Amino acid sequence: MSDPLLEVTDLVKTYAVSGGGFRSKGGLVRAVDGVSLTIERGETLGLVGESGCGKSTLGRAILRLEDPDRGTIRFDGQDITNLSTKEMRPLRAKMQLIFQDPFSSLDPRTTVGGSIAEGLRVQGLDPDQRAKRVNEMLELVGLESYHARRFPHEFSGGQRQRVGIARALAVNPSFLVLDEPVSALDVSIQSQILNLLKDLQVELGLTMLFIAHNLGVVEHLCDRISVMYLGRIAETSSRNDLFDSCVHPYTQALMSAIPVLDPTRRKDRVILEGDVPSPLNPPSGCRFHPRCPVANTTSCVSEQPPLVSVGSAHEAACHVRAPKEADWGRVRT
Ligand code: ADP
Ligand code: MG
């Protein structure tokens, strides 16, 4: 029987927002609107979707940095959905977040060594043990021990992300949420950091949720990939199946957006029209239908498509490409 490290079921997170203007009504932003996913031990799941589709909210809710409205989160066999801040404390070191902008997690007035050591103090390590661990961590992420005495502004963007990774790993976590960790970096530096993460993944056996807004970034690092659109999962599959035979037209559109050296070799390009609709007032039926090149059924407009199994460990939510009456069977509503 499978014993996943993380199991998220039907998670919902909304934000009440005020109108902010004369006569404009406030409302409820449905940032995450019924998401289920599992991550096996040692596995990396990629979570991909356009900006604003709810990726960060989902990542933060999983770490209980946000309180979900509904659904359950099980981590390492324990239901953590309703744990208090105090009850979460022993779990904090086990679940770490790596940000897009490591500046936001580093105190500008604290040396990098001090920042990396912060979580170690909480764990009760003495100063010598902390200094030793800081050195080990700097070496692990490809920095030098003298870097410990420097301040965040003395580092380049790529080096700062290495510090962010060292800081998260210092407390020996088993699960990492990486929220667009390379989006702010130059392309050449991006691949260095992705290679570092890949090495660490193998060396430390980490389980990761890797968030990105384009598929190209997750291609080399992830075992499976979930594609998210306006608060819901559109498709989940193994990385190879997704790249070889994706089912959802939105996934196809994201594939079309990956830069390739020779664009004429690309077949079946799907270019999206229009902007992402607002999660304050999401479209009826399938949320993707106003931008969808294949929407052709009344269900597309009136009924939310369920995630349906379309192959081995491959699920998609699309009335046209993954009709639920097909004999591959319905797995989730
Ligand atoms: P992503 O990470 O995919 O870009 P987010 O999770 O940051 O998306 O945001 C999803 C939606 O929720 C967006 O419409 C965003 O504006 C909204 N949102 C996020 N955080 C808040 C908040 N604290 N208050 C109100 N709305 C929020
Ligand atoms: Mg985000």
How would you portray this structure in words?
This protein has 10 helices and 12 strands. By secondary structure, the chain is α/β, with parallel strands linked by helices. It has a single domain (6-19, 27-332), classed as Rossmann fold (3-Layer(aba) Sandwich), CATH 3.40.50.300. It is globular. Adenosine-5'-diphosphate (ADP) is lined by residues 15, 17, 29, 31, 49, 51-57, 279.
Q: What's the β-strand tally?
A: 12
**What characteristic shape results from the CA principal axes?**
globular
Helical content stands at 25-40%
Number of H/I helices: 10
Defining key terms:
single chain; 333 residues; alpha/beta; 8-stranded mixed sheet; 4-stranded antiparallel sheet; 10 helices; binds adenosine-5'-diphosphate; binds magnesium ion
Task: Tell me briefly what this model is.
With 333 residues, the chain is an alpha/beta fold. It has ten helices and twelve strands.
Any chance you could write out the topology, listing elements then pairs?
Elements lengths: L5 E12 L9 E13 L4 E5 L6 H8 L7 E6 L2 E2 L5 H8 L2 E4 L13 H11 L4 H14 L16 H14 L4 E5 L7 H18 L2 E6 L2 H4 L5 E6 L2 E7 H7 L3 H8 L41 H5 L5 E4 L2 E3 L17
Parallel strand pairs: 3-8, 3-9, 6-7, 7-8
Antiparallel strand pairs: 1-2, 1-4, 4-5, 9-10, 10-12, 11-12
Helix pairs in contact: 3-4, 3-5, 4-5
